[in-house]
């Protein structure tokens, strides 16, 4: 009988007793319980056997030669640390409180006092085994969880965040409280040279908080690359997160666009601590507080709330922080707080330029000393310069202009048109739509970035100056840009008539092509004669005058295109862009 | 207990009072406090006067309560958050979503 049960079980018991007789007796009882048994006759031998066999249960006598049971138990338990729970049961004839205490002190998980019946020892072994089974169950669950967290961490840093743009220029600090942080940091470059940055903090920690990370990163990066505006990106992300995340899970986040072209930063803070704009001396120029509930809480964003536009100098920096920094506590329970953060940030910018992230990390660590970190610590430090659009100055030009003039309809390879009127003008940005048409028809290519710029400039001109009748003079100062933007928003909201008509015609030839962009609007046009003459002036003279009249936009379009012509007193424009296949 | 619940005599006013720490540890008892109550048209008051710490999972729990309140056409009011707690609510802009009485 005993042999059969023993064969079925993989559990191994180590019996330690200096009496061979006792060893034998206990072995028989254990075998009846389905254990295989090994024995040792003193404490020192028991430790050796324990290391060799890694048993599932130890029965230990107290008084033995060479090394007693207490010492052996201590050594065995020291070997195990927290990795493993092999229950250790003392068996003794000494029935006193002192013995009991010493057994537990030595690391024993229980004690049995002789004399006992076989039934009692079987019951005791069963109960102690129950605890140990529970322990190994917990342990394997914990290991699984750890594996999941490692996977999430790998996904986050290895897959999502490694795709971030300009990781060398933007200071990013991330110190997770758990292995996997609920914080996410994304950066991407828009085709017009604007930099988009996101710092997000999902509710909670660990795997649960990572559900939204992939769709968030995908939407952010894809929409930025297609040239959608920050507002459009935030709207889309909010809708996705609202549908995807359960009610109690959301994303506190700050979105930033740095536009060197507008000399402005666009900041949307939904549920994070204040975002800072520091000047080169570390003085706080602006502090943008949260003004919208976190992303994913409401089905749609609250109207007219959220986006702040501030003028920035090239030497300024925009710094985003998560609450883990300001709420980091020291041993007295004080929080690091905003005042210390501002002071240390100033110190960093004055003393050790460009090392804001390391300096703050050093200061926070110094402040907290050995208090364990409760929340994820995240910071992004964005310099406000160096994001100018890369221009391809050597745009390949067409050599045989005469033979394939854009006007010759029969040669057109395809043609696409979008006619937007009234309120749809306020709701729809046609540029990404047009760009995705071009890319679907002609495939992806780096030089489409030029087309994006041309389309954006021409469309914005048609909408702003043609339909909305805004005066570009307003934009001459950085403060004026803010005013311009507000006025633009106001007029867009009440727009009920007017149109912008966009037409693309593509002419494909062997190894080259031409895209003709025609945009017309319902406006009155403008003083395009003087404007045309500016375009025809020499580079240097033209620059200043052109900036005054129309910003750098049109000059850039002029440089990118093989031809640019205005009609109908400036209310219609035709731009011709050509390329050669690479 | 980290959480107390008082129901007025007519059963229409349900006050949930959270102790110092409002975080994931009270998740279950917080949910129990409202989920089974027969609460059509009741008035829920979330009393935070004793609360000194609140994290983002607490905000999540408040959103769940708000969901429940809306489904049972009841009302919800957050009552007496201290400065620290109010700061957390303010950063999350919860006053745009529900009534907060200081």
Automatic annotation (TrEMBL), chain A:
Boundaries of every Response regulatory domain copy: 12-129
Molecular function terms from GO: phosphatase activity
SMART domains in the cross-refs: PP2C_SIG, REC
Keywords, sorted A to Z: Hydrolase, Phosphoprotein
Spans through the membrane: none
GO biological process, alphabetically ordered: phosphorelay signal transduction system
InterPro entries per the UniProt record, alphabetical: Bact_Sigma-Reg (IPR052016), CheY-like_superfamily (IPR011006), HATPase_C_sf (IPR036890), PPM-type-like_dom_sf (IPR036457), PPM-type_phosphatase-like_dom (IPR001932), Sig_transdc_resp-reg_receiver (IPR001789)
Residues with the 4-aspartylphosphate modification: 61
Domain of life the protein comes from: Bacteria
Biased composition (Polar residues): 392-408
Annotated stretches, region: Disordered: 389-408
Name of the featured protein: Fused response regulator/phosphatase
Protein's organism: Thalassotalea marina
From TrEMBL, chain B:
Entries under InterPro entries matching the protein: STAS_dom, STAS_dom_sf
Domain STAS positions: 16-102
Record protein name field: STAS domain-containing protein
A GO MF term: anti-sigma factor antagonist activity
PROSITE patterns documented for this protein: STAS
Organism in which the protein naturally occurs: Thalassotalea marina
């Amino acid at each position: 009988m005993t042999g059969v049960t023993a064969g079925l079980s993989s559990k191994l018991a180590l019996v330690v007793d200096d009496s061979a007789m006792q060893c034998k007796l206990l072995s028989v009882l254990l075998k009846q319980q389905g254990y295989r048994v090994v024995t040792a006759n003193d404490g020192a031998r028991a430790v050796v056997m324990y290391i060799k066999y890694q048993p599932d249960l130890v029965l230990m006598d107290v008084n033995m030669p060479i090394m007693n049971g207490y010492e052996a138990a201590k050594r065995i338990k020291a070997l195990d640390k927290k990795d493993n729970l092999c229950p250790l049961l003392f068996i003794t004839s000494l029935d006193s409180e002192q013995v009991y205490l010493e057994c537990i002190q030595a690391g024993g998980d229980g004690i049995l006092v002789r004399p006992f019946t076989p039934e009692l020892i079987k019951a005791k072994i069963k109960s102690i085994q129950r605890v140990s089974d529970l322990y190994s169950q917990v342990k394997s669950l914990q290991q699984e969880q750890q594996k999941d967290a490692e996977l999430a961490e790998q996904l986050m840093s290895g897959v999502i965040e490694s795709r971030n743009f300009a990781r060398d220029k933007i200071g990013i600090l991330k110190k997770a409280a758990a292995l996997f942080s609920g914080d996410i940091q994304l950066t991407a470059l828009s085709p017009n040279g604007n930099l988009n940055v996101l710092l997000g903090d999902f509710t909670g920690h660990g795997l649960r908080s990572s559900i939204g990370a992939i769709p968030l990163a995908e939407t952010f990066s894809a929409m930025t690359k297609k040239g959608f505006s920050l507002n459009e990106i935030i709207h889309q992300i909010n809708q996705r997160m609202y549908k995807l995340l359960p009610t109690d899970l959301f994303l506190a986040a700050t979105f930033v666009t740095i536009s060197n072209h507008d000399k402005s930063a666009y900041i949307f803070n939904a549920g994070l601590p204040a975002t800072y704009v520091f000047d080169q001396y570390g003085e706080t120029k602006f502090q943008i507080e949260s003004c919208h509930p976190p992303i994913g809480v409401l089905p749609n964003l609250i109207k007219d709330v959220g986006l702040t536009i501030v003028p920035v100098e090239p030497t300024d920096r925009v710094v985003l922080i998560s609450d883990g920094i300001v709420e980091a506590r020291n041993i007295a329970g004080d929080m690091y707080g905003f005042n210390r953060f501002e002071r240390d940030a100033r110190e960093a910018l004055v003393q050790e330029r460009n090392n804001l992230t390391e300096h703050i990390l050093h200061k926070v660590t110094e402040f907290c000393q050995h208090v364990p970190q409760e929340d994820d610590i995240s910071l992004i430090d964005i310099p406000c310069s160096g994001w100018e659009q890369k221009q391809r100055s050597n745009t390949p030009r067409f050599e045989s202009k005469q033979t394939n003039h854009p006007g010759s309809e029969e040669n057109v390879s395809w043609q696409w048109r979008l006619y937007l009127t009234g309120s749809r003008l306020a709701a729809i940005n046609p540029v990404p739509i047009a760009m995705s048409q071009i890319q679907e028809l002609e495939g992806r290519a780096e030089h489409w970035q030029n087309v994006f710029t041309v389309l954006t400039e021409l469309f914005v001109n048609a909408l702003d100056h043609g339909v909305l009748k805004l005066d570009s003079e307003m934009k001459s100062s950085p403060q004026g840009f803010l005013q311009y933007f507000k006025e633009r928003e106001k007029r867009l909201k009440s727009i009920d008539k007017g149109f912008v008509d966009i037409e693309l015609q593509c002419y494909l030839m062997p190894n080259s092509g031409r895209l003709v962009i025609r945009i017309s609007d319902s406006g009155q046009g403008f003083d395009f004669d003087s404007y045309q003459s500016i375009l025809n002036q020499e580079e240097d003279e033209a620059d200043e005058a052109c900036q005054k009249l129309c910003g750098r936009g049109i000059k850039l379009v002029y440089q990118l295109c093989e031809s640019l012509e205005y009609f109908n007193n400036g209310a219609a424009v035709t731009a011709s862009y050509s390329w050669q296949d690479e | 207990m980290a959480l107390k619940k008082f129901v007025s005599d007519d059963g229409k006013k349900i006050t949930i009072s959270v102790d110092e720490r409002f975080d994931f540890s009270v998740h279950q008892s917080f949910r129990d406090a409202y989920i089974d109550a027969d609460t059509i048209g009741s008035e829920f008051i979330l009393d935070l006067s004793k609360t000194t710490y609140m994290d983002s999972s607490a905000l999540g729990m408040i959103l769940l309560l708000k969901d429940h309140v809306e489904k049972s056409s009841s009302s919800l009011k957050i009552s007496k958050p201290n400065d620290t707690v109010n700061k957390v609510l303010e950063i999350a802009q919860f006053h745009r979503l529900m009534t907060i009485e200081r």
